[in-house]
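Posting for a labmate who doesn't have an account.
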Amino acid sequence: MQVLVVGSGGREHAIVRQAAASSLVEAVHAAPGNAGIARQATCHDISDSDKEGIVCLAREIDAGLVVIGPEAPLCAGLADALTEAGFKVFGPSAAAARLEGSKAFAKEIMTAAGVPTASFAGFTEYSAAQAHLASISFPAVVKADGLAAGKGVIIAGAMAEAEEALKSCFLDRRFGDAGLEVLIEECLVGHECSVLALCDGETMVPLEPAQDYKRIFDGDRGPNTGGMGCYSPVPKVPNEFVADIIDTIHRPVVEELRGRGIEFKGVLYAGLMMTADGPKVLEFNTRFGDPETQAILPRLETDLVELMLACADGDLAGRELRWREERCVTVIMASAGYPLSSSSGDVISGLDDDGGLEGVQVYHAGTAPGGDGGFVTAGGRVLAVSALGATFKSARDRAYEAVRAISFDGMQFRTDIAAEPARSE
């Protein structure tokens, strides 16, 4: 069959690589893709926001499956448009994608379903939100309600920081329409973990957990980003604990949606804080995470395309996933200025054959073709370097060896990805 992957980042590159290796797939297409994806797929110059263009492309290539990577086209109804046109789609409807598109809606669903999460208050006016700050303790979390590319969450250590965060949303409009409504939440304490589950509308099958790093600098300092690294599995979250998480978090949410006439098909990502009182939801995503995907998929032995088709067909029941025993560590390489800005056009060196290292895969995110068949930077997060190893230490060493073999002006990367599990082994 022909598979069409919608999107242009590192997550989509990871999905494309898995699809290209599937025995079910004749050819992989991407819209729009990127310079690295073009090595494994035919890229089409169609924006992921162009619903009509993507539907026409799916018809042109007779796509047997369309996989939607980013959140924005899901929230805009791309899955609905493709389903109405008769295509099998991996990705939820716009109604289901509101779990990610509106944090206030997600809180409403969690409250109705009895799913544990941080206490919160929502506001649509700056003055009311500012007045609320006098009644809370710090640190606190200020969240733009809508989609903000992973950057709409500000952890405020004091009143002044919270006021500045509210100004950035309501007055400066830093996050555009995404900041027209703001949530102010308690700051949960514990360790973070991401648990993703495939869903066919009723049956849920968990993927192995991952832990990502949101802050730009080592030691979890600096502003939030879309993610600066990740590792999988998570030793602190064993498989039996994952099963409990699915039953107490994912399943009640999907059932609450179904009770409202909303069917969820695709992957439901729960960003969790593992607190002293148990797991609590920080956020929901309604698609594969980035960079979680780049740390999870290298370990997956089961055919990903087969699983995504099962989600689209309502046929997940009874399926068990096979996983490699190796650990995976993923390090993000970002351009100068990220996350507040980004540099483009910087020549990237050292990218030949994933650095020539065994067990390493380099996923392209913000890259463009350069001279002589090379690559240049074209975005904030440029590359995701993933490495497998028998231990976290070996995977981590291999990942950083590959990272240091790659260079471009102004490159940024954290040096502490997976340092804790490597020390604890």
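Reply:
Got it, the structure tokens are right above this. The chain has a mean pLDDT of 94.
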